[in-house]
């Protein structure tokens, strides 16, 4: 069965470009983006890994560790690093899991046989510090991911963990947010001192509370 939102992310041991890891130990008290790509030395994947390296500081600022995976071996991942640097100007600054026996890919259901029997799809798992899976995304091999969108969803998850709010369509950090329907108007006055606007009784907005 596939991994669903709210599930505890399975632990594993793996070889990575930064050494052997035990996943839970490696997570520590951080959030994690675990993502798979189909194959080393392929064009879309090369652009994606360069972009993830470029965004390193943006992930760190949110207490997020990033880790990649494909079913290629360690030697391949290491050799590909210099191509990624040549092509994108970025040095890969996060570990890449080598999973030639597909142990992790199968644990996380990253091989979708009706798409490809030999390679992983573009899976993304956002895992919180309690090891719960908070976001899953699956993209096809032919479509590079938008990692700015993954940062946006992490901003939303971290904000909505802290306050009784949710984030509307196309929300960006700094935009108004939605007051949780379970919060009464009386409570909202106390919880959101900047005030709130009632568009419908179930749709009230308030300035982002942490800024
Ligand atoms: C790519 O990264 O360009 C790619 C990888 C596998 C299949 C198709 C495209």
Notable traits:
single chain; 211 residues; alpha+beta; seven-stranded mixed beta sheet; binds benzoic acid
Give a description of the structure.
It is a single chain. This protein is of the alpha+beta class and 211 residues long. The chain has two domains: 13-144, Glutaredoxin; 163-206, Antioxidant, Horf6, Chain A, domain 2 (2-Layer Sandwich), CATH 3.30.1020. Helices cover 31% and strands 24% of the residues. The strands form two sheets. The chain has a seven-stranded mixed sheet. Strands 8-9-11-10 form a four-stranded antiparallel sheet, with helices on one face. Helix 2 crosses helix 4. The longest helix has 16 residues, at 147-162. The chain is elongated and about 60 Å long. The site of benzoic acid (BEZ) has 8 residues, from helix 2.
Topology:
Elements: E1 13-16, E2 19-22, H1 23-27, E3 31-36, H2 43-54, H3 56-61, E4 64-70, H4 74-88, E5 96-98, H5 103-107, E6 122-127, E7 133-139, H6 147-162, E8 165-166, E9 177-179, H7 185-191, E10 197-200, E11 203-206
Parallel strand pairs: 3-4, 4-5
Antiparallel strand pairs: 1-2, 1-5, 3-6, 6-7, 8-9, 9-11, 10-11
Bound molecules: benzoic acid.
User: Ranges with pLDDT <50 over ≥5 residues?
Assistant: none
So what's the overall shape?
elongated
Specify the CATH architecture of the largest domain. 3-Layer(aba) Sandwich
Give the number of domains: 2
- Structural class, by secondary structure, is alpha+beta
The CATH homologous superfamily of the largest domain corresponds to Glutaredoxin
| Annotation, overall tally of beta strands | 11
Tell me the major beta sheet: 7 strands, mixed
H/E series, N to C? EEHEHHEHEHEEHEEHEE
CATH classification class of the largest domain: Alpha Beta
The spatial strand order of the largest sheet comes to 2-1-5-4-3-6-7
Q: CATH topology of the largest domain, anyone?
A: Glutaredoxin
In terms of DSSP E residues, the strand content is: 15-25%
User: What is the share of helical residues?
Assistant: 25-40%
Number of helices: 7
Overall mean pLDDT: 98
**Over all CA atoms, what is the radius of gyration?**
19 Å
Measure the end-to-end span: 40 Å
Bound molecules: benzoic acid
């Amino acid at each position: 069965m596939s991994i669903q939102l709210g599930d505890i992310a399975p632990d594993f041991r793996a070889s990575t470009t930064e050494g052997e890891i035990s996943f839970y130990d490696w997570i520590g008290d951080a959030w994690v983006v675990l993502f798979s790509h189909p194959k080393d030395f392929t064009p879309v994947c090369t652009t994606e890994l360069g972009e993830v390296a470029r965004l390193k500081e943006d992930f760190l600022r949110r207490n997020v560790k990033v880790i990649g995976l494909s079913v290629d071996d360690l030697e391949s991942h290491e050799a590909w690093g210099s191509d990624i640097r040549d092509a994108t100007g970025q040095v890969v600054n996060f570990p890449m899991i080598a999973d030639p026996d597909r142990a992790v890919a199968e644990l996380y259901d990253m091989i979708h046989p009706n798409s490809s029997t030999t390679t992983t799809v573009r899976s993304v798992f956002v895992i919180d510090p309690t090891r719960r899976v908070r976001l899953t995304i699956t993209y096809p091999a032919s479509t590079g991911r938008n990692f700015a969108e993954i940062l946006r969803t992490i901003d939303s998850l971290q904000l909505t963990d802290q306050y009784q709010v949710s984030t509307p369509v196309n929300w960006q950090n700094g935009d108004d947010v939605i007051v949780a329907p379970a919060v009464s108007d009386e409570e909202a006055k106390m919880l959101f001192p900047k005030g709130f606007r009632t568009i419908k009784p179930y749709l009230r907005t308030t300035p982002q509370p942490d800024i």
